[in-house]
Design brief:
Layout: H1 3-10, H2 13-19, H3 21-27, E1 34-37, H4 58-61, E2 88-91, E3 95-101, H5 109-118, E4 124-127, H6 129-134, H7 136-144, E5 148-151, H8 164-182, E6 188-189, H9 198-206, E7 210-211, E8 216-217, H10 226-236, E9 241-246, H11 253-268, E10 272-274, E11 276-277
Parallel strand pairs: 1-11, 3-4, 3-9, 3-10, 4-5, 6-7, 8-9
Antiparallel strand pairs: 1-2
Bound molecules: zinc ion.
Length: 281
């Protein structure tokens, strides 16, 4: 993967169009380029693919014009069928990824977005389709502010108990509503409750999505107290870690308050809070 491909992935099409060249500079920070790791593909990784870019020095790529913003793809990207989800990311520097599941929820998601905007960092939101349907403006805001929106099914079922057809419907319907509101189909999928099976990997791949789990579970859904959530993030923080929190599904005010405390601490500790980049396109 080359740096400009990474950059392409960091910015949504909508954001790129809005922000233009200014976004290139804003995103041109070492450590922003994380790739997912944690498992081996079933078949060998493809070579560089049809797009080949020369490697650029860090100082040079900022000057490279944005490329790759063609018309929206009609068909999903082809991805490998995994056996396990990615659990962490790798990249230059102390990268860490914050993920928020089950939303969007108008009671909590706007506050989380406000905090992320205050510190100018990007995060991932694994949304449920039925929540998106009621809160489309929040997903549009995620797109505008450069966040990555992933697929967390339509209604948050335990997929391992569903038929293949039901699993596909849960995933595909969510892809559709994300595309409608976010402007792109999701590139990432996360199974509710972390309950993966072969069908979820196969269907996710068919729909062009990579499976992402997490490294640290804040267990914020148990409302353990804001201080406990902060402590879990601070304690677990390490390069490549993916943090799981929730912005919906119950009272998430502790999650909102915890983010306000641990995000500046992570940044002060030298972490690059970023979003993962797909290895293969
Ligand atoms: Zn969930």
């Amino acid at each position: 993967m080359t740096k400009d491909q990474s950059l392409t992935g960091l910015l949504t099409r909508r954001r790129a169009l809005l922000a233009g060249a200014a976004a290139v500079g804003a995103a041109g920070t070492a450590g922003l380029f994380a790739t997912v790791t944690g498992e081996k593909p079933i078949r060998p990784a493809p070579a560089a693919g049809p797009q080949t870019h020369r490697a650029l020095k860090p100082s040079a790529y900022r000057l490279e014009p944005l490329t790759g913003y063609g018309p929206p793809r009609a068909a999903p990207r082809r991805v490998l069928v995994r056996r396990r989800p990615f659990l962490r990311v790798s990249g230059r520097g102390r990268t860490i990824v914050l993920t928020f599941d089950d939303g969007p929820d108008p009671r909590y998601t706007p506050h989380i977005l406000d905090t992320l905007r205050e510190y100018d960092v990007r995060a991932m939101f694994f949304v449920c389709g039925e929540m998106v349907a009621d809160n489309k403006e929040l997903v549009a805001r995620m797109a505008d502010e450069g966040h990555v929106v992933g697929n967390h099914t339509w209604s948050h079922p335990l997929l391992t108990r569903l038929s293949r057809g039901r699993i596909r419907a849960e995933m595909e319907r969510t892809c559709d509503v994300v595309e409608e509101t976010y402007g792109e189909r999701p590139a990432w999928f996360r199974a509710p409750y972390g309950a993966w099976n072969r069908a979820t990997f196969q269907l996710g791949a068919e729909l062009g999505m990579e499976p992402l789990a997490w490294t640290i579970d804040t267990l914020d859904w148990t409302t353990p107290g804001t201080g406990t959530i902060i402590h879990r993030v601070a304690n677990g923080a390490a390069p490549g870690v993916v943090v799981l929190s929730h912005d919906a599904g119950g009272d998430r005010s502790q999650s909102v308050r915890a983010l306000r405390a641990y995000l500046p601490r992570l940044l002060d500790s030298g972490y690059f809070v970023t979003v993962p980049e797909r290895k293969y396109r």
